[in-house]
Amino acid sequence: MAAEDGDGEGVRVLQNLRGKICEAKNLVPYSGPNKMRDCFCTINLDQEEVFRTQVVEKSLSPFFGEEFYFEIPRTFQCLSFYIYDKSVLQRDLRIGKVAIKKEDLCKYTSKETWFLLQPVDSNSEVQGKVHLELKLNELITDNGSVCQQLVVHIKECHGLPLVNGQNCDPYATVSLMGPSRNDQKKTKVKKKTSNPQFNETFYFEVTRSSSYTKKSQFQVEEEDIEKLEVRIDLWNNGNLVQDVFLGEIKVPVKVLGNDSFQAWYLLQPRENGNKSSKTDDLGSLRLNVRYTEDYVLPSEYYVSLRNLLLKSPNVQPVSASAAYILGEVCRDKCDAVLPLVRLLLHHHKIVPFVTAVAELDLKDTQEVNTIFRGNTLATRCLDEMMKIVGKHYLKVTLKPVLDEICESPKPCEIDPIKLKEGDNVEVHKENLRYYVDKVFNTIVQSSISCPTLMCDVFYSLRHLAAKRFPNDPHVQYSAVSSFVFLRFFAVAVVSPHTFHLRPHHPDAQTSRTLTLISKTIQTLGSWGSLSKSKLSSFKETFMCEFFKTFQEEKFTEAVQKFLDEVSSTESKEPSGLSEPVHLKEGEMYKRAQGRTRIGKKNFKKRWFCLTSRELTYHKQQDKEPIYNIPIKNILTVEKLEESAFNRKNMFQVIYGEKPLYIQANNCVEASEWIEALCRVSRCNQRRLSVYHPSAFLNGNWLCCKATTENTKGCTPCTAGVPADIQIEIDGDRETERIYSLFAINMPKLQKMEGI
């Protein structure tokens, strides 16, 4: 997904942001009798909210613990984190913020940092830029005296913020400021746009004394203009309410020469904005932020490096391969693993590479019970591969039962130390047993859904382990269970939000329940794979007692049967009765398909749900669908020009005679929905090659002016038709990341070469 074009021809600049909103502390107490607050945190690109945590109730030191990752599909100036106090009846109160300029993000990469919260006021909340042309002209008056005329041409603005979720009604004031003057003029108001085109010119006279006469080469005397400046203020027209300040710029007149001077200026906050003597009193926020930019060259530039990496599975020994050396030179193997796994997946080389490095691991493994327990290149590559390839597998397997646990939680605490007065531990054990049984049965009955790639890797691991320890009949199972149970299902159960199985980090009680379930599932998974009892794996006596209820042969048999099935290379027939895979859901706005009573189509808030079979929308979440579009009927999914309805973040789903127009809540959400819809529909046979990027209104297409609604599209579709619709990988981007890692670690590489 290209965020913006680079400076060089054919260069793509791709931006992404990942990190974690950890916790806040020492927030300002509520002024009422109850001092506690109900807090949540948002992430904003400039003034556009792109992420929101769950609400943590009744706390002045809320723990959020929420990770985030998204591609950034546009330019931005500032990344901000806002702490809010949730209000039921009034507008949510912004307690404070952390604002980091884009150019400063590199200072905090991958480091957890405590930031002091800064005060929030409207004068400091700005974004966007303005295009100006300035010129000083020489004028000769009737009496022969000379003066200067300042010409200010305000051309346009770009990227002004949304106001109350909608495009603003901007206008600009243009002022010439000095010690004894303040001449101000004003543009016309532009309606419903974040990118207004003003194209208005204003003239200001800078009058000289009558003794100042014409010169052949007119030069501005510096002392006359030293204190003059041009100030542009952007405002949102409030009509019946107060106008909202959007930003300002100041240009000293003394910098202007005889030639015309034009440039884009970033809007700035007011000088008195965001200044407070009580900054330290607002509290602080702990964050981990990592922003990266990838400058991706045309594919032919990566041929040599790519070929070298793809030969890695066949290099003997594999420790001499480019891919293995990449893991060795990087201080943090995680930096190397993600792009490496994605590149190898893209070129169908992941199975032979993981097999080769796993075999290397096994040579150093002396004890059966430590097989694949370390954080080696092999285990990390397999972990990352399972996250990517097994995403849909987890959704179809675990999401329904995790939704039940998180949305209707039953008390499951069985630790005597943590039990509260009045708790019935036997009831808690029954609840926990019910959840464990449900999760366990769901897992062991899911082999039909296990992705083929995972099965192929498990097959290799199983046979490698049996070859390394030929006298242990159980090692073939423990080699597989150490990944599929310990590193895949158990991790997804305890952290469902990191696998996109739940929208937020679970609350403390639910998190504790998930931890107990995960511990039991881990042990059940290894129970069937090893001959000796696993009760010793529990440090807590109460967990040992609870697990004794699972000491039945049927659990061992179920685990071994499941491990046999997922480590088999035999093809699995898809079930005709299989449930559709849930892919994405959320609240957005759709343009009405029919007409209202007054004859105009409007926008309505709806709950959208995308599965592998259909796109539906509902009046509310958990209500029956109002309308559904089968995936097989989707012809294309594309962005919609903002000018069509004067609304940002719009896209269209073309599935028949008329498109469905949808407005997302922010640019990241719009980009994610387009990507998900494109991916799931890309194998449709009747996909369009051209489309209309705007709407058909008042008898013509706004984009090409064609007057017939069924006129063929005027713009090529942006989405191609890749062969693999499940895994969308940009091979050139991953190779660029690997090249960057080698470049950064060149001293280590040269040292290795000299050994």
Automatic annotation (TrEMBL):
Location of the Ras-GAP domain: 332-526
GO BP terms: intracellular signal transduction; negative regulation of Ras protein signal transduction
Keyword check for Cytoplasm: no
Entry keyword Cytoplasm: no
Domain called C2: residue spans: 1-115, 126-266
SMART domains for the chain: BTK, C2, PH, RasGAP
A GO molecular-function descriptor: phospholipid binding
Keywords from the UniProt entry: Acetylation, GTPase activation, Metal-binding, Phosphoprotein, Repeat, Zinc, Zinc-finger
Domain PH: 581-682
Protein name in UniProt: Ras GTPase-activating protein 2
